[in-house]
Structure formats: structure tokens, C-alpha cells
Amino acid sequence: MSWNSAVNQSLPLEPLVLHWPKPLRVADDCFFDFCQVNRDLRIERTAEGNCEIMAPTGGGTSWRNSALVAQCYNWAEKEGNGVVFDSSGGFILPNGAIRSPDVSWVKRTKLAALTPEQKQRFLPLCPDFVIELRSPSDSLNVLQDKMQEYMSNGVSLGWLIDPSARQVYVFQPNQLMICLDNPDVLTAGNLLKNFELDLLKIWDVGF
Predict the structure, then answer these.
(1) For domain 59-203, which architecture applies?
(2) Is the Cβ–Cβ distance between 93 and 153 less than 8 Å?
(3) What is the DSSP string of 70-130?
(4) Predicted TM-score of the model (pTM)
């Protein structure tokens, strides 16, 4: 089945992967420039140096992602110890992959160590907290593998939200994945103090 036909039928599909031979794999700065001239696509790089291309999301997923970012941003502005990034922000993980979580939060102490030049490109660090939002065409297994990659590279907590099933998969380093059925609220303990994600504002599209 083709990529387009799978999208039209709302079937899960994996990203389109471009396999680059090792001698042709581009440096981080060149990959950043490549992504800038292809802004209509969401592009990530695997630890092996291959390029994963994902189509833009539909309206419902875009709205939900905006709602997630808004809740996280509003909390972070009051709490003050970290910064929230949306899905357009790329991070160079320790394993060499370049990933763009739907929502991420990074401690200010990490960001303070970056140069002004580094802050203008993909950030060479691993977020402390990430959220991935499953769209109707996303493969659950692919997203779960991505969450495990985050954990292996230094993320302290990750939430994979599946609106169609009203489930949330909770990931932490060296712990088994936990699946929550239809939760109303998520909390993050001491990592994100006093943060509560209201999922009642996420489950149903607000337009």
C-alpha cells in the first residue's frame, strides 16, 4: 500500500525513510539547513543517519498539539525552572539522532550552557520531559520505539497520548511502560512540580 493511500484510509503507517550511505551522511548543520528549505515536512534523523519524513498533520491533531503546548507553556511560565518547545524544535540526542517531540520541556540550567549560535539551530541536548501525540495515521509501535529512544538518551519522563483510544502510555528510564485508560488529568511528580495536564481539553477536538 502506498503512503498516500494509507493516509487517505486513516491507516497507521511508518515514516518515509531515506537511507543515506555513510559517506553521504550530512553533518548536523547541513541537516538543519536541509530541514529549513523543506519546512512543509516534518523531518527527523535516526541514530543511524537516515532521514525520516512525515507529512503534516490533520486539523484535529494540530489543534490537540496546540492545546498541549498551551497548557505546558502556561505552567512553565509560572514555574520558571524550564522552557517549553513545540514540535518545530529539534534536539540532537546523545546517540546522534535528531528528534522533534510534539512537546518538550528543558531545564534552564541545561539551556544556560549553550552558546547563542547553538540556540539558533537544533539544540545539542536531550529534553527532560517529552510528549508525543498520536495522530490517526501514526503507527503506535513506531511511536513507542521513539519514546524508548528518548528514555535511553536522558529523558526523565515521557507521555505518549493516543486520543483515538483515550489512552496514555507513561515512560520512565529503566521502568516498564504503563498504560492509563481514559485519564482526566496527568501529573509529573517532582519533575514538573504542580503541573497538571487536563486531558478533558484534549480528548475531544474543540472545533
Answers:
(1) Alpha-Beta Complex (3.90)
(2) yes
(3) HHHHHHHHHH-SEEEE-TT--EE-TTS-EE--SEEEEEHHHHTTS-HHHHTSSBSS--SEE
(4) 0.88
Please report, for the chain, the start and end positions of each structural domain, with discontinuous segments joined by +. Answer: 59-203
C-alpha cell belonging to residue 187: 501529573
> What tens digit of pLDDT does each residue of 142-199 get?
999 999 999 999 999 999 999 999 999 999 999 999 999 999 999 999 999 999 999 9
For 26-57, give one letter per residue: b (16+ CB within 10 A) or e.
eeeeebbeebeeeeeebbbbbeebebbebbeb
Phi-psi map region of 80: left, alpha, beta (phi>0 left; psi -120 to 50 alpha): left
Residue 59: CA count within 13 A, CB half-sphere: 4
Q: Quick one: how many helices (H) and strands (E) in the chain?
A: 7, 13
Residue type, 188: A
d(CA 148, CA 134): 15
